[in-house]
Amino acid sequence: xxxxxxxxxxxxxxxxxxxxxxxxxxxxxxxxxxxxxxxxxxxxxxxxxxxxxxxxxxxxxxxxxxxxxxxxxxxxxxxxxxxxxxxxxxxxxxxxxxxxxxxxxxxxxxxxxxxxxxxxxxxxxxxxxxxxxxxxxxxxxxxxxxxxxxxxxxxxxxxxxxxxxxxxxxxxxxxxxxxxxxxxxxxx
Length: 188
Hints:
Helix 3 (53-65) crosses helix 4. 66% of the residues lie in helices and 0% in strands. It is mainly alpha-helical. It folds into three domains: 2-37; 46-116, Cytochrome C biogenesis protein (Helicase, Ruva Protein, domain 3); 127-177. The protein contains seven helices and no strands.
């Protein structure tokens, strides 16, 4: 009966469902492509840019390493905050004055503190920040391995204990199996 009900499905409904799923798949792909291809808007204004392309590239690279103090999780290259603009201009002034990348970074760190760096330096004060994540991942992996090993040992022990039946259990199983089996046909 169930087989007949399954065969009597309406082809129109099935076709519509397929059409909708295809449409939604194509629509999702198009949205993804548009968002992936669209270039991100940068906060750097044309009047901030340096005339020398090599110096501008250095300034942009340094700007990507520095944190916007207003937005906090954005680089000054991406931020549109007035303070980020001031910092971008300061970076370009220092580069135009002939400072190296390290001198520019050191100047900004001395002025604003280590917090201005998006990636803190590996120093005696920041070693815990750098090493805590790998140690936490390692501890989690070891914990999962230990738990899985323990669970497998307990399951094996339970299987071994569960395979041994008592004489009463064996007799009960034989009685149930005998009651369920159909009587043998002796009219052959």
